[in-house]
């Protein structure tokens, strides 16, 4: 008989490079509905050396990527092991880990999340479920976003689930199917400019709110081809590095003005992405703390009710949902939706590794 209670560690590292999110999770299936608890949780920040490597890895050679993958798998395994020891966790059913995305070019059949090598199970001495994206790309899908099935199973009371992380993405039900797609870059750009002022991020959007919108730059950003594509569609850091930043950098304006303009751009694109403006929008991710961004989103969605949940869900929702994806994989149940990714079929994605 398949068990209905799971003791899980969910692990996520996002493109905004905030650090490694770890969450101790309990899942229980009651009357066909998944219930969850987020217990111990923390974000382990990256050293500056790691931030620099992860930012620059998109340009690494194949051999450099292989070396980085081994090094990062060791870092991730040890970080998980330290988390287990620190919180005295026992009887873990599995560690469910996303890894860190370095390359994401589904149109070329390429996606690479480092930290998913088989050795990770031995390093942290736990069963590990990981590498959730590659199978979907092999099936002709985008390999992203993967969170929407968790939105459906855990947060069904919301009409729209919006994540404001390195990129914004949204998921919702449409004609009985879960639809989801990336909308635009968010913290990958906002943090880039905050970093230039010696700050980790733009706290509550104070810098952005002090700047002025450059209408010509805003118009050029809103005209990018990606926004005219129909879903499924997804973004990687390549989009920011090769397209977005060169456009912004072509304007000799203050960093505050760049931040104000890009924040307006984010809000406009989110407003355009929602087909029905009168529903409930559930917002998570680091951008939920950016008061100025939230105000601008509300400006373009005047009839939409914006719901910002408790801190643990804002910060650890992705770790939570990758924990659920791992549980579904252990049960050999569908955890990736073709209506979201464009793959040839729904499937149960991920690899399961055991410690040696």
Task: Describe the overall structure.
- Strands 1, 2, 3, 4, 5, 6 and 12 form a 7-stranded mixed sheet that branches. A 5-stranded mixed sheet has the order 9-8-7-10-11.
- The two termini are 26 Å apart.
- The model has no long low-confidence stretch (mean pLDDT 96).
- The protein is α/β, with parallel strands linked by helices.
- The chain is globular and about 60 Å long.
- α5 (148-154) packs across α12 (311-330), α8 (215-222) crosses α10 and α10 (255-273) packs across α11.
- Helices cover 40% and strands 24% of the residues.
- It has helices at 48-56, 62-86, 119-124, 134-138, 148-154, 187-196, 206-210, 215-222, 237-249, 255-273, 291-300, 311-330, 338-341, and strands spanning 5-13, 20-30, 33-44, 94-105, 110-114, 128-130, 160-164, 167-174, 177-185, 280-284, 305-307, 351-353.
- The protein has 13 helices and 12 strands.
Short description:
This protein has 356 residues and is α/β, with parallel strands linked by helices.
Low-pLDDT windows of residues: none
Number of strands: 12
Number of contiguous helices: 13
Coarse structural class = alpha/beta
Main beta sheet strand tally, sense and closure: 7 strands, mixed
The share of residues in extended strands comes to 15-25%
Give the termini distance in whole angstroms. 26 Å
Tell me the helix content.
25-40%
SSE ordering: EEEHHEEHEHHEEEHHHHHEHEHHE
Arithmetic mean of pLDDT: 96
Radius of gyration: 20 Å
Apparent shape: globular
């Amino acid at each position: 008989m398949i068990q209905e209670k799971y003791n899980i560690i969910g692990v996520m590292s996002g493109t905004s490079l905030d650090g490694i999110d770890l969450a101790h999770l309990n899942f229980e299936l009651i009357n066909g509905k998944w219930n969850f608890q987020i217990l111990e949780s923390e974000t382990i920040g990256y050293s500056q050396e790691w931030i620099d490597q992860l930012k620059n890895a998109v340009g690494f050679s194949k051999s450099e990527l292989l070396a980085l993958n081994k090094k990062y798998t060791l870092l991730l395994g040890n970080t998980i092991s330290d988390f287990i020891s620190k919180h005295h966790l026992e009887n873990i059913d599995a560690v469910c880990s996303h890894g860190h995305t370095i390359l994401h070019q589904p149109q070329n059949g390429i996606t690479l999340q480092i930290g998913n090598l088989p050795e990770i199970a031995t390093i942290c001495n736990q069963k590990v479920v990981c590498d959730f994206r590659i199978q979907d790309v092999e099936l002709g899908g985008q390999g992203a976003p993967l969170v929407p099935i968790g939105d459906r199973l855990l947060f069904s009371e919301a009409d729209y689930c919006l994540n404001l992380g390195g990129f914004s993405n949204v998921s919702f039900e449409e004609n009985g199917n879960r639809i989801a797609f990336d909308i635009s870059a968010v913290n990958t750009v906002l943090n880039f400019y905050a970093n230039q002022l010696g700050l980790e991020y733009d706290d509550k959007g104070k810098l952005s709110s002090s700047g002025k919108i450059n209408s010509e730059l805003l118009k050029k950003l809103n005209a990018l081809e990606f926004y005219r594509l129909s879903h499924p569609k997804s973004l990687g850091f390549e989009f920011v590095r090769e397209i977005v930043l060169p456009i912004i950098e072509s304007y000799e304006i203050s960093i505050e003005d760049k931040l104000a303009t890009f924040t307006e751009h984010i809000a406009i694109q989110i407003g355009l992405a929602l087909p029905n403006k009168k529903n409930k929008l559930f917002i998570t991710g680091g951008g939920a703390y950016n008061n100025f961004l939230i105000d601008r989103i509300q400006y373009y969605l005047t009839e939409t009710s914006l719901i910002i949940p408790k801190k643990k869900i804002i910060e650890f929702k992705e770790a939570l949902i990758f924990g659920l994806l791992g549980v579904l994989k252990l049960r050999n149940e569908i955890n990736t939706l073709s209506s979201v990714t464009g793959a040839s079929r729904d499937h149960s994605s991920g690899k399961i590794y055991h410690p040696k």
